[in-house]
Amino acid sequence: MTKIGIIMGSIRDGRVNEDVAKWVKNLANKFGGAEYELVDLKDYELPLFAEPASPAYTDDLVAKEQQRPWSEKMQSFDGYIFVTPEYNHGMPSVLKNALDYVYTELNDKAAGIVSYGSAGGVRSAEQLRIVLSEFQVAHVRTQPALSLFYDWNEEGFNPSDAQVKAVNTMLSQLAAWTEGMQFVREKKAQNQ
């Protein structure tokens, strides 16, 4: 069974990230076709990345024991959905820091992005796309962008039907790309 990790990109107290991620997981479970798992960055105590080299170039990380659970978790997935807020016109530092600790774990996999913020989190998503491209991740086009002004009300998180449709479209694209990237990984393994 294909495994998709839903990465919660915020650790702030009082975050709405968890509500958004659980909503995405609920829609994903209804969509089917894969096993979906929430991954909370709060569960991984990663120090500020200050390694002498990127994991793209070395396995010799000073913080190897601390980053091993994160690395193994990311390796276990065939694809990802990143749920990211936008902080100060960019992605949260905790998400970027966590991504700095991995490289090959994400190579030749697929990802979708669900963003949120006052402007839908689109700048955070665009920054994340650049980072994912470095990891050779095929990120799908459809990106639900939730607005703090329109998808929340007095009662809390209340996404529109258009947002539900956008998540389902993203899931459809992600399913196809995840399958395709699995073939790419198999082909690369045969050629090594």
Short description, anyone?
With 192 residues, this protein is an alpha/beta fold. Helix content is 41%, strand content 19%. Helix 1 crosses helix 5 (161-190).
Please tell me about this protein's structure.
This protein has 192 residues and is α/β, with parallel strands linked by helices. Helix content is 41%, strand content 19%. The chain has five helices and eight strands, in the order E-H-E-H-E-H-E-H-E-E-E-E-H. It has helices spanning 17-31, 64-75, 93-100, 122-134, 161-190, and strands at residues 3-8, 35-40, 79-85, 110-117, 138-139, 145-147, 152-153, 156-157. Strands 1, 2, 3, 4, 5 and 6 form a six-stranded parallel β-sheet that branches. Strands 7-8 form a two-stranded antiparallel sheet. Helix 1 packs across helix 5 (161-190). The protein is globular and about 50 Å long. The mean pLDDT is 96.
Q: Which stretches of 5+ consecutive residues score pLDDT under 50?
A: none
Mean pLDDT: 96
Reading the helices and strands in chain order gives: EHEHEHEHEEEEH
Oligomer: single chain
Rg over CA atoms, rounded to whole Å, is 16 Å
- What structural class results from the helix and strand content? alpha/beta
Strand % is 15-25%
Main β sheet profile: 6 strands, parallel
Number of helices: 5
* Coarse shape: globular
**First-to-last CA distance:** 25 Å
* Helix proportion: 40-55%
How many strands? Answer: 8
